[in-house]
Amino acid sequence: MSSQEESGPGVGTLLINWALEYDTQKIVHIKNKTIGLLNRLIQLAIIGYIIGYAIIYKKGYQSTDDVISSVTTKVKGVIYTNITDWPDLLITDTTPYNRIWDVSDYVIPPQESDAFFVMTNMIITPDQQRGQCPEDPKIANVACDPKVPSDCKKGERVINGNGVRTGKCVPYHFPNGTTTDTCEIDAWCPVEYDMNPTNVTAVLNESERFTVLIKNTATYSKFHFSKRNILESSNTSYLKGCMYNNHLDRFCPIFKLGDIIDATGEDYNALAYSGGVIAISINWDCNLDYNWDDCTPVYTFARLDNKNAKLAKGYNFRFSNFYQDANGTDTRTLFKAYGIMFKVIVTGTAGKFDFVPLMLNIGSGLALLTIATSACDIIVCYVMKGHAYYKKKKYLNVQSGADNDPDYENFS
Amino acid sequence: MSSQEESGPGVGTLLINWALEYDTQKIVHIKNKTIGLLNRLIQLAIIGYIIGYAIIYKKGYQSTDDVISSVTTKVKGVIYTNITDWPDLLITDTTPYNRIWDVSDYVIPPQESDAFFVMTNMIITPDQQRGQCPEDPKIANVACDPKVPSDCKKGERVINGNGVRTGKCVPYHFPNGTTTDTCEIDAWCPVEYDMNPTNVTAVLNESERFTVLIKNTATYSKFHFSKRNILESSNTSYLKGCMYNNHLDRFCPIFKLGDIIDATGEDYNALAYSGGVIAISINWDCNLDYNWDDCTPVYTFARLDNKNAKLAKGYNFRFSNFYQDANGTDTRTLFKAYGIMFKVIVTGTAGKFDFVPLMLNIGSGLALLTIATSACDIIVCYVMKGHAYYKKKKYLNVQSGADNDPDYENFS
Amino acid sequence: MSSQEESGPGVGTLLINWALEYDTQKIVHIKNKTIGLLNRLIQLAIIGYIIGYAIIYKKGYQSTDDVISSVTTKVKGVIYTNITDWPDLLITDTTPYNRIWDVSDYVIPPQESDAFFVMTNMIITPDQQRGQCPEDPKIANVACDPKVPSDCKKGERVINGNGVRTGKCVPYHFPNGTTTDTCEIDAWCPVEYDMNPTNVTAVLNESERFTVLIKNTATYSKFHFSKRNILESSNTSYLKGCMYNNHLDRFCPIFKLGDIIDATGEDYNALAYSGGVIAISINWDCNLDYNWDDCTPVYTFARLDNKNAKLAKGYNFRFSNFYQDANGTDTRTLFKAYGIMFKVIVTGTAGKFDFVPLMLNIGSGLALLTIATSACDIIVCYVMKGHAYYKKKKYLNVQSGADNDPDYENFS
Which residues are connected by disulfide bridges in this protein (chains A, B, C) (predicted)? Predict the structure, then answer.
């Protein structure tokens, strides 16, 4: 045998020989109840993890695709407000607040991708024009004495205020008739009187009865799957009359704003009074190995901003409607709008059987099985009674220095 | 030898010995054509998978970065509409529709991040003021008999309607001169007559000739790579005259709306009539191991909402322009705007050679090679002719009970 | 022994035997300084990589969660502009530019999710009405000769222009008094004179003093962790007076626009003049194994669009305020608005100790250790002095043909 090896065969022969050989590990097969059982238990745990968790629970036999989605929303509802007789009014002139409100009045801006804002409370300052007027005395550093001209420095901006000082000190008339002196400013006049109509009730607290139709199409392009949240089985009369309810009608795409806020655990009027941010999550997680009809949207609702905030709570912003009055002077109606920002967040992963991920999971599982052997080897060779015996069986000791021994072929 | 081992060397000596030892598996080298070939074939398949799929096809030798992107858009185009002579008109007063339309008329809101909306069809209700007027008879439950006062309950909102019932029943005059009785409501008056000018043609169906310039900068910060979709090689005159075309000019950042809709396979007028949502995808997948000039954007277009929907098809919303009339009364022009919502979606992953992911892929590949041995072992030890012989060669049987045998060193 | 094996035990016995057996690899234990040291070094490198990089540096012992976030913004600031005395004016009538600007004038649209736009420069065209007027001569192909009627073809749109040709050729009066002939168009008249007030300074270049309050709530729902960027330890007076500064006050949620632009390395006036897109990134990467109070936001700022662009630089769009004049004619004020688009991008990953990912990392690490053995095997069996000796020790050669040998049990 050794003489055959020492004769020099050609490269081709070597290659063919190599291709027809098979190397497999020499295994030491130990019959021992303790270590045998331990080994099988560890192996079982690993196989259980691979099959139970990685393959079945985590669906390791599926390839997946992320959802592509389109969302459009349409709010409906109309309110007639007349706050003149409300208790605890903080303002004297309620005229701007006694009016009708429809969707193009309270949805700002009228169109947003994947979101909509509903104004629920506001401070209205009608008929502002550019000019000079006294600054709001609630702003810091604007009180002045008409006899001390240096109190109001011309050209100086009022920090967090409404304009730029003209240099004069003029009387400011509160809505209740009293008067104080503040710096005159270049601004949109008269300046906003930053006071909500009441300190308990949102002007549009009835907006909890508004409804929103959410149209959502979810697409899994890899699986050529596309579906709407308006089920094809519904008809026009259903769509006109239905209302989403987590228990009674989970597939109606029409939501009452009050129901959404209830589902987040918030109080509608409190949220409407100071504003906030609400997430409407639509989840399309689907197992496309099953009936595709079972792939339906699941809605969840959560408040995104912090309701327990001590500072700078809620959400508001200012906007204006601009026009010219009968004399051609630029005029605007300023709104400080408090309201609820609804964000529609569509998530989802679809899975479908695929050979490649299944193989990858089995492969990496088999690699993990070596952990069982490694763990048991330590016990067998160092811990167990009779470990020296097993160690000797497992290890074949080979001394170095063979290179010094010309006859090493006979060494064994 | 055994006596040396039994003498107690120090910990340092043991450590040094440990560091200078090398453990390798004892291999059973089987010369058998069948199993040898099978083994090599399985190994080849695994290596082929690792090199061909995981490393080359999936670019396992690259580290990757996701694109950071900025998108701004600018629509251009102007239409003069005169629908008076259109066939199949459904309305009698066409005055509000005979006018010029430019970008600040039909893009609502004027600025949106990563999206723009083009109004393509609309119902205009000019000169609405807050007051009392009869509700639209097309709304459910508003027909009434003036002799039956209970038909209209004061203060009750009209569901899906335009206002709140005043309690009166008044005549509603259709545009064609006929009359019916409906509940009077507090609302913006007169209420919208919810009827498109025609039932076939979008008012702005010529908007297919509008163009949009999309300015997109893609950045891969990990690789210090940044590029615009407006190629640096282009000049002003090119940019003024060019038009994107998938075959002729793939790098022009100016798109005709009609071309975009064509690329999605939709009919422009049908889409413009009822509205829809279109995705403009810009993909920047790049292999930065190659010439960075080859990293160019690829545009694709798709309709995101469901065009075959039976219910609640298309996309529309209402918005108003607010002003005061000559008497200082709040007035508005209400638009029910149908149109196309374009969403610009930028995706991309760049890869560049990196040693770490290459090593990780090779490592996990080597681990997979054990599958070949495992599979062949089963065949060799249980299936193949002569399997008992090979099994005996592979396994070294060790009986337990050595611990009962003080002389186990001689046991073998 | 062999006779016992050949007697046929029941399946139950076989199963029990199988469960109580343990297979471990036969190891060839080589005492050789060179290869031993090499082996340990490679093992050390792999273990170092696993523990140091995958487990400690990449936090392989933690399960992670991605941030869910809510962002609202509020810009503050007011400017009084009077550009009449500015040098290098390019326009003659500065009236529309001498005015007060507050937040509802320069933030367009007033509300956007995760973004806000601040107008910093503009071209104002007041009092446009729908009618006929000469086209802007700066547009291509609109110059004409009144004696050549074919120059202006009725009904033809002006490409990139403001309207549709009426067929007439009429004189256009430049603001400086000179005159030229251009095609008359149906348009909003008079057409915009597309010229910035100056070619160096943005009209609202003082907007660098504007401030923005960013309210951001970050939530890691898996870990029931939620925190605002307005720290609970701050109070109202702090919040009114503080200003973000990377060195002095990293936790103030109020930012001066000029500071943001400075942090990106841009020049404020240059950016304000032609517009641009700025990213405000808020990163909430947190190690929740440590004190949760240490989980604080980190702000970074970057310009997203390409400032070195030769073509189509900056960001602008057109919007209008619509109203009726005293005669009831539809009128609008057109703004070409240049400005800075701020995008608030919230990122973050939180980690917390978890047993499962730790085990997975250790498992895949052990699998990598086989690389050390594989590498050394090549050296031992093919490269090293005395390799034939080691190879012989490692490999047990088994000849095929055993199946031809009925007495193969004695073959060895």
Answer: 133-189, 144-169, 152-183, 242-252, 286-295
